[in-house]
From TrEMBL:
The lineage of its organism: Bacteria, Bacillati, Actinomycetota, Actinomycetes, Kitasatosporales. Pfam families: Methyltransf_3. This is Class I SAM-dependent methyltransferase. Its EC number is 2.1.1.-. It is an enzyme of class 2 (transferase). InterPro entries: Cation-dep_OMT (IPR050362), SAM-dependent_MTases_sf (IPR029063), SAM_O-MeTrfase (IPR002935). GO terms for biological process: methylation. PANTHER family: CAFFEOYL-COA O-METHYLTRANSFERASE 3-RELATED (PTHR10509:SF14), O-METHYLTRANSFERASE-RELATED (PTHR10509). Signal peptide: none annotated. Keywords: Methyltransferase, S-adenosyl-L-methionine, Transferase. It comes from Streptomyces hazeniae. GO terms for molecular function: methyltransferase activity. The keyword Transferase applies.
Length: 216
C-alpha cells in the first residue's frame, strides 16, 4: 500500500471501516509480512472492505482477479459472493498463492476460488468471449494493465465493474520526468479508459488510486 493520503490519517481511516479485520485476515496479513518482509503488495484492510462492498453492490456471481499474491483481496471478495459464486484468481506465483490457498480453506471460501497459475493475459484470453464477468479487480504487473483492461472490458456485462489498483503510482503519473515502464503503462490505461465510449469511470484517491470503470 502506498500513501498518497496524509499518513497521519491512516489509523483513523482504518478505524472507520467495518467489518473490522477478523482473525483469518489478521493472520494472513501477519504471515504475508513474515514471508515477504516489508512488502506493500497486499491491499489494505479498508480496500478489502471496499472491494467486498462493490462485489455485493453489483450482485456479482463471476469475479475475475488479476494479481492474487497471498490471497487477501481474493478472500475479501470471495466472502462477498453468494455460495454458488465463482472467483477466477490469476497469478504467476505458486509460492505466494500456496499461502493464499491455506487461508481460503480456513475461511471456508476455497470452493468458490478457481486459481489459475499462468501469465494473466494468457488466462484471460482463455475465458469465454461473452459478456459474463460481473466484477474484476486488476492488481498485478503494471505494464500489463492496458492488456488486462482490454481483455476484461470485452467480457464485462453491461452494468458490471472493473476496479484497477495503483492508478496514481504514488503521484508519479503527474511527474513529466517519470518515464518508467510502469508509470507509462498506467498513464496509457488511465487515458484509454477516459476515452473509452463503452464505459464511464472515476479515479478515486483511495490508497494509491483506485479507478472504477462501469460498462454502459
Ligand atoms: C500487488 S500483488 C497482488 C496483491 C493482492 N491483490 C493482495 O491483495 O494481496 C501483484 C501480484 O501480481 C502477480 N503477477 C505479476 N505479474 C503477473 C502476470 N504477468 N500474470 C499474473 N500475475 C502476475 C505477482 O505474482 C503478485 O502476486
Amino acid at each position: 500500500m502506498t500513501h498518497i493520503v496524509n499518513p497521519a490519517l491512516d489509523d483513523y481511516l482504518l478505524a472507520h471501516c467495518s467489518p473490522a479485520e477478523d482473525e483469518v485476515l489478521r493472520d494472513l496479513a501477519a504471515e504475508t509480512q513474515r514471508a515477504v518482509p516489508g512488502t506493500t503488495m497486499q491491499i489494505s484492510q479498508d480496500e478489502g472492505v471496499f472491494l467486498a462492498m462493490l462485489v455485493g453492490l453489483t450482485r456479482a456471481r463471476l469475479v475475475v482477479e488479476v494479481g492474487t499474491f497471498t490471497g487477501y483481496s481474493a478472500l475479501c471478495m470471495a466472502r462477498a459472493l453468494p455460495a454458488e459464486g465463482r472467483l477466477i484468481a490469476c497469478d504467476v506465483s505458486e509460492e505466494w498463492t500456496d499461502i493464499a490457498r491455506r487461508y481460503w480453506e480456513r475461511a471456508g471460501v476455497f470452493e468458490r476460488i478457481d486459481l489459475r497459475i499462468a501469465p494473466a493475459a494468457e488466462t484471460l484470453r482463455t475465458l469465454p468471449a461473452e459478456e459474463t464477468v460481473d466484477f474484476a479487480f486488476i492488481d498485478a504487473d503494471k505494464s500489463g494493465y492496458p492488456v488486462y483492461y482490454e481483455e476484461l472490458v470485452a467480457r464485462l456485462r453491461p452494468g458490471g465493474l472493473i476496479a484497477l489498483d495503483n492508478t496514481l503510482q504514488g503521484g508519479r503519473v503527474v511527474d513529466p520526468a517519470d518515464h518508467s515502464e510502469q508509470v507509462v503503462a498506467i498513464r496509457e490505461v488511465n487515458d484509454a479508459i477516459t476515452a473509452d465510449p463503452r464505459v464511464e469511470s472515476v479515479l478515486l484517491p483511495v490508497r494509491d488510486g483506485v479507478t472504477l470503470v462501469r460498462k454502459r
